[in-house]
Amino acid sequence: MPHRRVVLLLPALILPAATSAQTEFRVTASFSILADLVRQVGGARVRVVSVAGPDADVHAFSPRPSDIESITRARLLVRNGLGFDPWFDRLVRAAGTTAPVVTASERIVPLMAEPHHHHAGDHHGHGHQEGGRRRHHSVEPARAADPHAWQDVRNARVYVENIMSGLVAADPTASEDYRRNWAAYDARLASLDADIRSSIARIPQARRVVVTAHRAFEYFGAAYGVRFLAPQGVVGHAEPSAAEVANLIRFIRAERVSAVFLENVRNPALLQRIAAESGARIGGRLYSDSLSGPDGPAPTYEAMMRHNLGLLVSGMMGEAG
Ligand code: ZN
């Protein structure tokens, strides 16, 4: 017995040191939400780096020269696409890498949005059924894809499947692990989707109107039946005009908007002012485009969606946020 035991233990002692370089598969993602999705599918084998870290404003992100290193070292690259992370594409070009690039949003039919900020409240009356993002303009701005597709969990499931395919193709030796991790995670996302749906369904239709900082929740709104208004656009950081803010405040009062939410990626000052002037409650801080750090309330995609759901439900039900 003792003799046999030594034989069995020996490979376990030697293998980690000898093969850690081979078993570690490096992936670099453009932003924190994608990095988490890669981690869920990649499991222990994958070492994931996110170029834009927790709480980063990805729209306005400017990479440092040193970020090129994380691209050069990666064997697989993951971008959102839909115009969200063009700086990542520039980094990839600058790095001159031949590593394959996964576009996580591939196969998703995007919602269309205007690139500039808007007087929320005007012309947004009919929700997704009638193409609520369409608004009247004297000068029609170019419409672009809304990149925030992950806010609909069904889209996140497409992201994860694209990531799984990318990992399997780039690292076929571990394909069984990737498929197994993916199947388990996809099942969790399916129940997350169902939980959001049933939680929102319990809220009376008239209460399902909230205000956020920027237009990051159109996919959530369309998928789960919540109307989101925002003083800032899908991408734009331009401060809304005084008239636009006044419009939004009038709208909040007239429609008895349940709550105004801050976002982790935006300065809270404007929203705090709007809440104070309209009498709306601050419903807490939603995580829109980036996760929190490991000790925050949204260190993973799943935690982020559940955190946001909890705040939204309390806010819409009129409970303290
Ligand atoms: Zn955004």
Could you outline the blueprint of secondary structure elements for this entry?
Elements: H1 2-23, E1 25-31, H2 32-42, E2 46-52, H3 67-72, E3 76-79, H4 86-95, E4 101-103, E5 112-113, E6 144-145, H5 153-170, H6 175-201, E7 209-211, H7 218-224, E8 227-229, H8 242-255, E9 259-263, H9 269-278, E10 281-286, H10 301-316
Parallel strand pairs: 1-2, 1-3, 3-4, 7-8, 7-9, 9-10
Antiparallel strand pairs: 5-6
Bound molecules: zinc ion.
Zinc ion binds next to loops.
Question: If you had to describe this structure to a student in words, what would you say it looks like?
Answer:
The strands form three sheets. The protein has a four-stranded parallel beta sheet with strand order 2-1-3-4. The chain has a four-stranded parallel beta sheet with strand order 8-7-9-10. A two-stranded antiparallel sheet has the order 5-6. About 45% of the residues lie in helices and about 15% in strands. The chain is globular, with a radius of gyration of 22 Å. It is an alpha/beta fold and about 325 residues long. Strand 3 (about 75-80), helix 4 and strand 4 form a beta-alpha-beta unit. Helix 2 (about 30-40) packs across helix 5 (about 155-170), helix 5 runs antiparallel to helix 6 and helix 8 (about 240-255) packs across helix 9. Zinc ion binds near residues 59, 148, 216 and 288.
Taken in chain order, the helices and strands follow as HEHEHEHEEEHHEHEHEHEH
Q: How many distinct beta strands?
A: 10
Strand content: 5-15%
Biggest sheet architecture: 4 strands, parallel
Number of separate helices: 10
State the share of residues found in helices, binned by percent: 40-55%
Rg calculated over all Cα atoms:
22 Å
Cα separation of the termini: 62 Å
Shape descriptor: globular
The overall average pLDDT, rounded, is: 86
Compounds present?
zinc ion
